[in-house]
Amino acid sequence: RLESLADLGQWRGGITPPKDNPRYWESGTIPWLASMDVSGSEGREIRGKVTKAALDETSLRVIPGPTVVVVMRSNILRRALPVGIVESDVTVNQDIRALVPRAHIRVEYVYQALRAASEDIREACVRTDGSMAAVDSKAFLDFRIPMPSLGDQEVAAGKLRHIDAIVNDLSGRLSAELSARRRQYEHYRDRLLTFEEAVS
Q1: pTM, rounded to two decimals
Q2: Is 97:73 a contact under the CB 8 Å cutoff?
């Protein structure tokens, strides 16, 4: 069956605590996710951290992990829809929505389904007429994805995770091989194109 994204649980946003207040940032220990973290690493590497004071004194709240995160406002939306998965508890900025799933919804399945539908979501939901591209929240929440039984969600997510791991492993190996071949080319290029000057 198909279910709307709104029916999967609660989609929460966040804020950026004032950067000019060091009490919110210095020696922070609570992960704070920005859109560049999702765009660059699918949310698996979180660079920002806030302090407990940021939670106590602003509207920022912790979102329990695991969670699926989607970039809702960024010019990267003109060419892609960044979707990520965060395993631990996290806070997010105002450009991200994170899913707190209802019972019997597997976060990793939703992550894989959103990745698969990302171009359809972008086409149906992203507005690019302003200076900053943005996902229309209502259209996004109305978007529907296949939602099988819990067991089938786990099987599908597990198989896709396995294939992902193979692809990432191959990508790493190919990258290393390309690097080695480039170094080899440069070595022989420098040797083959270096000539001793003729003695007259």
Answers
A1: 0.80
A2: no
Nearest to 111 by CA among 42, 170, 55: 42
Q: How confident is the model at residue 125 (pLDDT cuts 50, 70, 90)?
A: very high
How large is the angle between the packed helices 107-116 and 118-125, nearest 10 degrees? 70
Average per-residue pLDDT for the chain: 90
* pLDDT on residue 23: 97
Task: Identify the helix (H) or strand (E) that includes residue 164.
Answer: helix 150-192
Q: Residue for token digits 């294939």?
A: 163
Alpha-carbon torsion, ordered 107, 110, 116, 121, to 10 deg? -130
Bond from prior residue into 18 cis (ω within 30 degrees of 0): no
- CA distances to 10, 19, 94, 103, 158 from 30, rounded to whole Å, are 21, 15, 16, 26, 29
**Structure token pair of residue 82:** 């960044």
- Torsion angles phi and psi, residue 49, rounded to 5: -145, 140
- Dihedral, CA of residue 74, residue 51, residue 86 and residue 34, to nearest 10: 10
Residue, of 197 and 66, whose pLDDT is higher: 66
CA distances in angstroms from 103 to 55, 67, 145, listed in the order given: 27, 13, 17
Q: What is the pLDDT of residues 148-163, one digit of tens each?
A: 998 988 888 888 877 7
